[in-house]
Amino acid sequence: MAFDTSIGKRLSNLRRQDRWWGYFYLVLLVIAALILFTVNLGSLPLDELQEGTMVKIAQEIWQAPPNSWRWIFPTLSGNPEVFRPPLFPDLLAFTFNIGGVSPLTTRLPSALLGAFSTVILYGIGRELFRTTAPTLLACCVYVTFFPVISQGRWGTLDAPLLCFEMFALWAILRSRRDLRWTLMTGFGFCLVGLTDNWSVLPLAVLIFLFLRWDTPRLLICPYFYCGLILGMMPLIAWWIAQWYFYEPIINLWANWQYGAFAISLQSKLSWEWLTNQSFNRYLSTFLHYFSPWFVVAFYGLRLAWHYRNWGWAKFLLVTGSVCLFFPLLAIANVIPLSELAHPRWYVLPLYPILALAAGKQLHQLRNLPSYIGYPLTWVSVFNCFAILLISLALYGKFVLKIDFDWLLLGIFGSVIMTLIATSFLLARRDIQFIHVLIWGNYISLLLFFSFQYGI
């Protein structure tokens, strides 16, 4: 009995030590994410189409008298924005009240929420994997995804929406063990709905399918729905207020939207929509946001299918499927898009899932026996990426006669050296390829955003 007790204490101490080391590395990751999200943030002017619209709405909220209720019913040039959720414009107005109107204050709320999403991803990983190593690897992959950093630095809805969706998913994972977290799940729905109305639908479908497969007892639990409704009360109240103040406009919009939806559904139930402009727009967005991490994430999703009876695998498969299904509906124009809708709104939620899958796959590679080699496909993919970048640089220099800046050439060289070194270490079966790939991507992103080549 004494022996069992000592073993139990030792295991408890190891778990506690592992948890504290995880928190330490998480703090370092958050600092690294903050640097990427905020470095050189206010150097470039605002984008007139998307950031400019948000700034105008936030300015009207900021300059309006307190009894005007603009913070609940936003306006643009004095005209009511009926379906414009007020959360993000209110956040911008609060920032303008502190620091004035500038590119930095416009983008800072999104950048901070984007960096904070790293903490939420860590919480999701701990709920899924129960260990620190794959979770930290997933966070490293997430921080070095170019689209996550690039779009998170804009003063638009991208980073807030992604952060709030991840918070709702974290809350639903925790509510499987503690029903009190259903209140936070409802609050996550509230944050998503007050940021973008349409994003509530895919989130609700995702959570329902995951619970139906993994934890069906929650779907018949009255406490689950009570917590969900209580957490969503601010969103429900805003919907009721919208209906009360804008009922004629909403009725007119609903009739038009129903007819547009029916026509769209009839015309798109064929393969003709694959050749339309919307498909090309989404495909170009997807290719623009492609990353070398995708090959690792693909193997991670294949690993999840192999272990599909486990909770983490169910979560990755369900969320990945839903996050792919709704972009297809958006491609076909079957679901309506708001005025400022952009393909990235439907593509970005994929990246936390891909990061989790890649983190799990990298963790498995670290624990492989020494006689098992790494996938040769990875070596080929990284070599192809390096050759493609070299070819693009040479084509631009000698064919298009582009005068490249030395700093831009340095960024190209950093990415190419990272890919070549990674493929070399993979071929030698050296586990250090993980550190080289993470650090190489991070340094390349830091150089890119530090010298005004991108927001």
From TrEMBL:
Instruction: Name where it's found.
Output: Cell membrane
Q: What is this protein called?
A: Glycosyl transferase family 39
Q: State the organism named in the record.
A: Hyella patelloides LEGE 07179
Q: How does it sit in the membrane?
A: Multi-pass membrane protein
Q: Which GO terms describe its cellular component?
A: plasma membrane
The top of its lineage is: Bacteria, Bacillati, Cyanobacteriota, Cyanophyceae, Pleurocapsales
Domain of life from the UniProt record? Bacteria
Any single Pfam family the record assigns to this protein: PMT_2
Q: Which InterPro entries match?
A: LipidA_mod_glycosyltrf_83, RgtA/B/C-like
Q: Does the keyword Cell membrane apply?
A: yes
